[in-house]
Amino acid sequence: MIKVSDIAKQKVISLMAEGGFDASKDYVRVGVKSGGCSGLSYELDFDNKALESDKIFEDNAVRIVVDKKSFLYLVGTVLEYSGGLNGKGFVFNNPNAQRTCGCGESFSL
């Protein structure tokens, strides 16, 4: 399962509305792809449909879809948002990551 912090929830709902998505019925698509300085990088997007092979979760009123391959890397992850002066935007707190890069956008297992 993937958890969503309260601050990330507020930002997701706001960004979804700006992009023409409805947080009550559309999804946040979270994934992992090869790349980044540590080997794997996170993907975050909005989607209005889930594929048959997707894992579907809901936490803190945010609907999340993850493809099966990415799910293996993301189990237990908490999606947070950091928006202060040094804020980076969305942050993935992934307990499976053994090493992360300085920017926080890539990791390795």
Overall average pLDDT: 86
- Continuous helix count: 2
- Spans of at least 5 consecutive residues with low confidence: none
The helix content is 10-25%
Describe what is shown at a glance:
By secondary structure, the protein is α+β, with helices and mostly antiparallel strands. Helix content is 18%, strand content 39%.
What does this structure look like?
Strand 6 (78-82) and strand 7 form a beta hairpin. The strands form two sheets. This protein has a six-stranded mixed beta sheet. Strands 1-6-7 form a three-stranded mixed beta sheet. It is α+β, with helices and mostly antiparallel strands. It contains two helices and nine strands; from the N terminus they run βαββββαββββ. The longest helix has 13 residues, at 6-18.
